[in-house]
Amino acid sequence: MGRHTARAAPADVAGRATSPLHYALTRLLAWLAVRALFRVRLEGRDHLPTGPYVLCFNHQSWADPFVLLAALPRRPRVTFFGPREVDLRVGRRNRLIAWTGMALPYRPDKTDLLGATRRVQRVLKAGGVLAIAGEGRIHAGEAVLLPLDDGAAFFAQHAGVPLVPVAVNGTSWLAFGRRLRLRVGTPIPTAGRTTRDDLHGLTEATWQALHELCAGYPDPAPPAAGSLWYRLTEAFNEWPEGARPPVAAGTND
């Protein structure tokens, strides 16, 4: 892919360059908050490529991106694919996300696939990391892994960069001093643009890798209903069901 630089700033949904200072401040605050409140362990750090790659993680909580920012090396720069928004300039939450410079939003109706692909390519060509919650939503169950969307495989394959599975565990219920584990899997190589069957095969290989990384992790006991940590955990979780569902037995088979 030629020579890369991790210093280049990616662009937001409108194509404007985001501020490196805003991103650096966001990452510093995430590091301070996560390290002060939780015990974080990163396993398999030596598996992380030094150049650009696509990172595919399982999704338990709104806190997952901040835990990743706090645990991963400072370089290369990490950009998250999401949230599903038409325009991050509308609404206080969206404007805050846009200000941080850590997200590439995309339209939920999938009418901007070409534009989203171009923005992703800018991130990777600048030497950065694209992080994607492969399941496309949060779910209940630390060892549960829902089917993965093809997005992570598509972007990695399109750019010819490795696809790295990373399991995030411990965030389903937050609590002071809770141990959070991030486990990095072996990078999965890609060969550039290939067939749809190859794309599905890459997605399946990523699911299998994440499945093994998450397998057997116990579900923590929830805090007391109405307590500070209960409310904090659920404050920003957007459950498609409208509320936290029970753990889906057998989903991880």
Labels describing this entry:
alpha/beta, disordered N terminus, disordered C terminus, Glycerol-3-phosphate (1)-acyltransferase, 253 residues
Can you describe this structure?
With 253 residues, the chain is an alpha/beta fold. It has a single domain, classed as Glycerol-3-phosphate (1)-acyltransferase (3-Layer(aba) Sandwich), CATH 3.40.1130.10. Helices cover 33% and strands 15% of the residues. It is built from 7 helices and 7 strands, in the order H-E-E-H-E-H-E-H-E-H-E-E-H-H. The chain has a 7-stranded mixed β-sheet, with helices on both faces. Helix 1 packs across helix 2 (64-71) and helix 5 (151-159) crosses helix 6 (196-214).
Sum this structure up briefly.
This protein has 253 residues and is an alpha/beta fold. It has helices at 20-37, 64-71, 92-100, 113-125, 151-159, 196-214, 228-235, and strands at 39-43, 53-57, 78-84, 103-106, 129-133, 163-169, 179-184. It has one domain: Glycerol-3-phosphate (1)-acyltransferase, CATH 3.40.1130.10.
Low-confidence stretches: 1-17, 249-253
Based on secondary structure, the structural category is alpha/beta
Largest sheet entry: 7 strands, mixed
Instruction: Give helix % range.
Output: 25-40%
Q: Number of helix segments?
A: 7
Q: Count every beta strand, where a strand is a DSSP E run of 2 or more residues.
A: 7
- How would you state the average pLDDT, rounded? 85
Strand content: 15-25%
In CATH, the homologous superfamily goes by the name Glycerol-3-phosphate (1)-acyltransferase
> If you consult CATH, what is the topology?
Glycerol-3-phosphate (1)-acyltransferase
* CATH-level-2 architecture: 3-Layer(aba) Sandwich
Multimerization state: single chain
